[in-house]
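Database export, one record per block. Field names are fixed; values are copied verbatim from the stored entry.
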Amino acid sequence: MLQNQPHFYRGRFSVAPMLDWTTRHCRYFHRQFSKHALLYTEMVTALAIIHAKYDHLDFDAREDPLALQLGGSDPAQLKYCAELAAQRGYREINLNVGCPSDRVQNGVFGACLMAKADLVAQCVEQMQSAVDIPVTVKTRIGIDDLDSYEFLCDFIEKVQGKGCHEFIIHARKAWLSGLSPKENREIPPLDYERVYQLKRDFPHLKIVINGGIKTVEEMKRHLQFVDGVMVGRAAYQNPSLLGSIDRALFAEDAPIVTPRDAVLAMLPYIEQQLVQGVYLNHIVRHMLGAFQNCRGARQWRRYLSENAFKQGAGIEVVETALGFVEEA
């Protein structure tokens, strides 16, 4: 595992936290493609961890290395949740300062916190005082009209001063009103050079770049200027991208994992989950994009979509769907 290779920064490559997508089943599937990718949970709010009736921190040890993304702005609550997460074996606590949705803003967390750097710094200080694992921040390059490079540097300066040494930067600003979360991922222009400049001006910090990255070649180019790359929807919609990550970015002798390899590796896990009462479609919905650009990919998606939700659907649904696919 990555922890046995200290010459590699833990966040050299990661899969972004994505609400409703990077569930534990999704993460387990992604892990079959890459041993070294750092995986993130969906954003979990501090209040949900504290008050929910079920365990929001539960995960399979085979997902490791895994980071928890927290949503919140109450330093005491975040400190408590960070302590719990560290005890459970998470490798990193990440604070969400990048999500622009109305629901997140109403809870006073996400991207709106960029305008409250002192509060973010206080949250980081409290969490880092309670744990030995890194506390990181995922943010944008700006919000609304607060989008100058000076504003970004001031935010970074204040937060790093309280113990945050790693920042994941989505290379777009966010509009807190007028754009949907989807539009905020597409309409504000990408400014990779601003993230590169941040690394030049704060060379002692770990800087990870996020936003619009779709190929291994693009990742390698970014890694000439920053410490890590984070990929979101491109990895979810085409998880086969992850199959070459270990060889391309970590170890030249690492195997390339094919989608069929990953699906076959999932079968014992799927059987275990079915025995525990998990519905098949809750697992395989994250596997629909596995065979993008392969002959039979459409039939694979269709068969799973039409059959995985049926009462009593079992492992045979996945095995049958596999029969439709021919890999190049």
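Remark 1: The radius of gyration is 20 Å.
Remark 2: The longest helix spans residues 259-275.
End of record.
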